[in-house]
């Protein structure tokens, strides 16, 4: 790996790290180790074509190794690529199944998707990204992983303050940062780095943290993380934040071998900062990271939720019923919610979400078209296979054909005669197929085809 560290960077860290600096610079020059997660939200989730012999010690779902982004395992949401250090953030946040969780800086979604699996897709996960293009990538990752408890929003942290004061039990601020910890994974990022850039990032992070404070319930938990080494963006910022908000205090984080304490000497000599956690690549098998966990004191006020109306008319219920009778074993009403012609199983019906730019609220079931209902890819990626009347198992050639956008011609008459069937490959549901006249018509979204 060829990482050209600037003189400013080297001088700064020589001063901060003393004798350790050369070992630290050398580690940034070495290759990083890849890792990935399996997805317990999927049926038979350990049935994947990857080596699971090297588990990551602090994660039930993380493994060292490489994955193929074009494989069925990836395409059907059984795998998610995430580097080892970043995996620990969701473990530190420790979301519970009844929590309302906010991931404030969430794209592309590696931490949100981990959080959702830890919540078993229950409770509420609001996953937000300020940048629209990145928010859409976040939304597609939420879909691929079969997550049903997430509201995906595209807002600035400030936008939340209007309606969501004291709303969330747990908040993650995985802050936009100078990315020093990612230099060896993404050597291009070295080019954007400067001493001024670090200052700009630190300033932006202070604003995001202040919003998070406003949105956190008394008694709630806030996790702050960055993938950078700079004291300004880590210990200094947290020391400043604690001095501004006396209700907030740091909590201990369990440290595994190679993980280090936060550095009080880098944060105004605040000894509480030893409770924070640092990962440096010369001591830890992962990229550079900082994490800390804080609690807000006080008792939570009663949360009065006002629900929106679901917006579904009698005609639409009939169309859905017709679809369900023909293609499903059963369909129980569950938070149905209509947005223009699209039907969702909402993650939240709380009226307050009207004030935000919501890209996805829960599970997108499908679309009402003229006289019919058509199911969405999101639904097949989240559905329990036993709920479908028919699943057609594609062979290797048929899978290739389908991924290239073509229909499947059946030579024998199949056992099913319903129109919408689940398609699986290597026992993983990945798409709907529309059956008629001995053909399975291709309905795989164009953006996902090869
Ligand atoms: C470190 S990345 C998040 C990575 C993500 N948590 C994950 O694990 O996949 C930080 C994100 O913050 C977003 N961001 C940039 N400026 C922001 C701001 N002022 N407020 C909130 N988020 C911002 C960036 O677009 C970026 O997607």
Helix-strand layout with pairing:
Elements: H1 7-17, H2 21-29, E1 35-38, E2 62-64, H3 72-75, E3 79-81, H4 84-93, E4 100-103, H5 110-118, E5 124-128, H6 132-144, E6 150-153, H7 157-161, E7 168-174, H8 195-215, E8 216-226, H9 235-244, E9 248-251, E10 260-261, E11 277-279, E12 289-296, H10 314-327, E13 336-339, E14 342-345, E15 358-361, E16 363-369, E17 372-375, H11 377-382, E18 391-393, H12 396-403, E19 408-409, E20 420-425, E21 428-436, E22 439-442
Parallel strand pairs: 4-5, 4-7, 5-6, 7-8, 18-20
Antiparallel strand pairs: 1-2, 1-3, 6-15, 8-12, 9-12, 10-11, 11-12, 13-14, 14-16, 16-17, 19-22, 20-21, 21-22
Helix pairs in contact: 4-5
Tell me the distance between the termini.
Answer: 30 Å
Let me know the average pLDDT: 96
CATH superfamily of the largest domain: Vaccinia Virus protein VP39
Please give the number of β-strands: 22
Total count of helical runs of at least 4 residues = 12
Shape: globular
- Determine and state the CATH class of the largest domain: Alpha Beta
Q: Roughly how much helix do the residues carry, as a percent range?
A: 25-40%
Strand content: 15-25%
Instruction: Give Rg in angstroms.
Output: 24 Å
Low-confidence stretches: none
